[in-house]
Each structure stands twice: as structure tokens, then as C-alpha cells.
Amino acid sequence: MTVLTPVARPAQLSQQVVRALEGSIRTGELRPGQRLPTEKQLGGRFAVSRAVVREAIARLKSDGYVETRQGAGAFVAARPGLRSFKLVAEEPLAHGDLRHIQELRAAVEGAGAELAARRRTGADLAAIRLELETMAEAIRLGTDASDADGRFHSRIARATHNPYLFRFVDFLDNQFSETRRPGWDPARHRAGKPRAAQREHEVLFAAIAAGNPRAARAAAVNHLMNSMVRMGWTERLARRPPRPRRHPG
Question: Which residue in 64, 117, 146, 147 could disulfide with 83, CB within 3.0 to 4.6 Å?
């Protein structure tokens, strides 16, 4: 079967235009309220077709960087980029980007683990334990449990009983779930990396089950930061979290 590569080209070009215009807006070269050059002018500047420019403008509009006025053209929004939050890239993320995203996850999921330790129910613990056991079986068999890994973190987020927090955790997981899959490949199984991650999962679960918010937060942050080391995104290991102790009340 012939692969029709030209289909992907306009999207790639439009993303280049988006990045360039977004950069001009961020640096102040294009100021809030300022009218963007015409499609023809932008096409000439970037050596692309007007269709590519239109696609780029549409994307900038959906991301809150520009607004269009009928018959007047496109203008830089009053508060550029503050109407949406975007993590998805059109091309593979660099290790630096992945580190930053993992740090964001650590901040959010650390707070989530703390809340989960305060608010979890028996049903929450049973759901989290089920994913923990699924991963344990995959480690025994040397198989892929990346989906159970994602559900483990999602179940903890749901145990906060904060719908906004678990929706954001699920959003992050949906956007970057593929970055978890290599952590369960045969080579990493042989190196014992899933087993190391599982020990951290067990510490995290124990802290939540014990109702220890401080230990739960520390365990979540430790696990996510150490996962960066296992994936080769950074070289520094997180500090060992404190042992979970039952929180009074």
C-alpha cells in the first residue's frame, strides 16, 4: 500500500506557523489587541499557502491566543493563551519537556495522595488494591501492565473525591499514557525496573490505607520522581519517603 505522506505535511507546516506566531505573542512582538498580518503576508513570511495560515490561525484561536473579527481579520487576544491549557505536542517531546510534565504530575498527584489518605473509603482501597495486584501478577509473568499502572494512579485520584483533581490526573494520563508503556517492556523487566516501581506503589498504597497524608504525599512524589530516573529523563533519585504510620483519626 502506498503511504500518502503529503496528507501530513500541511499539519506539520501549520504547527511551525503556530509556534512562530505564539513566540511573537509571548515576547511582545505582537501585542494584545494588535491586528495580525493578512493571510497573504503571513504566507509570504513563512513560505506557506494561505490554507496553512488559516489552519494555524484557527489553532491559535482555539488556544486563546488570537480572536477573529468578521471582515477585520485576526487580532491578538487581550489575555493571550489564558483561555486553555495545552500539553499535547505535534512532535515527540524532549526529555526536558517530559521532566517538566513529570514534575507537574508529582505536584498534583502528591497533593492528591495526601487527600486520598484523608478521604479514602473501603471501596476506594479495594479498587486501588486490585490494580496493585494486577501489576504484581504482570511482574511475575514479565508482561505489560502499563494500563493497570495508569488505573492505579487514577484510582488514587478518585479516592480524593475531588472531581476536578481526578479529571486533571486522567487528562494527563490520557495525553502521555504511551510514555508509561516502555517502562514495562521486556528489557526493563530484566533490569528489575517494574519491580522497583511496584515497591514504591506498595509504599504509596500502604500510606493511603493507613490514613497517613504526609507519608502518602511523600510516597507519591518519590515514585514519580524516581520514575524519571528509570525512564532516563534525569539522573537524580528522589529521597526515600518516610515509612507510613497510621494517622490518628
Answer: 64
Render pLDDT for 9-53 as a digit per residue (tens, 0 to 9): 444 788 889 989 988 998 889 999 999 999 999 999 999 999 999
| Strand segments (E) across 21-177 | 66-69, 73-76
Rounded Cα distance, 85 and 113, in Å: 23
Mapped to the 3 state alphabet, what secondary structure does 146-157 carry? Answer: HHHHHHHHHHHH
Query: What pairs with residue 75 in β-bridges?
Result: 35, 67
Q: Strands of 134-177 (E only): list them.
A: none
Residue with cell 520522581: 225
**Angle at alpha carbon of residue 227, lines to 225 and 231, rounded to 5°:** 125
φ, ψ of residue 242 in degrees (nearest 5): -70, 155
Per-residue pLDDT of 191-232, as tens digits, reads 999 999 999 999 999 999 999 999 999 999 999 999 888 877
State how far Cα 212 lies from the chain centre: 26
**Contact yes or no for 204/113 (Cβ under 8 A):** yes
Give Cα 127 distance to the centre of its chain: 23
Nearest C-alpha neighbor of 60 from the set 75, 72, 38: 75
Which residue bears the cell 487528562?
171
CB 61 within 8 A of CB 74: yes
Domains of the chain: 5-76 (1.10.10.10), 95-230 (1.20.120.530)
